Amino acid sequence: MRLIERGSGYPRIAVIGGIHGDEPAGERIVERLSETVTVESGTLQLIVANEPALAAETRYTDADLNRTFPGDVTANDYETALAPRISAVLEGADAILALHTSHSAPPPFAIYSNCTETVRKSITGMPVDYVVDSSNLRGSTLDSTHPNTISLETGKQGSDEAVEFGLDAARDFLGVHGILGERNPAYTETTVVTAEEEVPKGDGEPEVFYRNFEEIPAGEIFARDDEYTHRVTTAGKVPVLASEHGYDDIFGLYGRITGSIEPPA
Ligand SMILES: [Zn+2]
């Protein structure tokens, strides 16, 4: 883990990249922020999480870091022992932004587990049209184990666009939380998609027929391979993190549009 701290006092705001080593955008965004951001008030914490996995260009070395929180300092595997060290640095932060990329098609989107007022500000203050409520899913991610935390899927893994979008969005995030001094953030309403379940993937050539947040009509096939044909039976389902080759064991998730988050009053 690499930590760069700027400024002093409160608020203390954190941006963390490189949780997954095969997603270089997060590290690049953190480095660009460290070179370009002038902290006007409070403390900015910039973190590159998983340096060995980044060096090896692999998602993780022993275990998926974003499935190991809160972790265990005495564990033998690298990520399980790293998670509590990261948590100790983030403890008490007023707002946290975790950067990710994926193999699914645009648009970028945010993810939260618990919609606090701080999370509402973070999400409506960033240029995303969609946010995924992942509170029904596993509880071992960074955003499910730290208060006032959101994740941001900035774009396609390995693309320059993911870096540029993430940089703009991270600056907006720092702006709404006061790190950049006097600034009037532009808040916008954001559509909420509640994630419901993972869609398993098996053997054979995978095919995915719908993009993220595109409604799958009842009776249509979302995805298939030699083992599975995922035909949806009810209206209103939308894919989240949909991709053919992004994950070994899932095509993505099914979600449902359940409302919207309004800008803070
Ligand atoms: Zn990731």
UniProtKB/TrEMBL annotation:
What are the required cofactors? Zn(2+)
Q: What Pfam families does the database record attribute to this sequence? A: AstE_AspA_cat
- Keywords, alphabetical: Hydrolase, Metal-binding, Zinc
One function term, GO molecular function aspect: metal ion binding
Q: Which Gene3D superfamilies match?
A: Zn peptidases
Q: Domain Succinylglutamate desuccinylase/Aspartoacylase catalytic, which positions?
A: 11-158
Protein name, as recorded: Succinylglutamate desuccinylase/aspartoacylase family protein
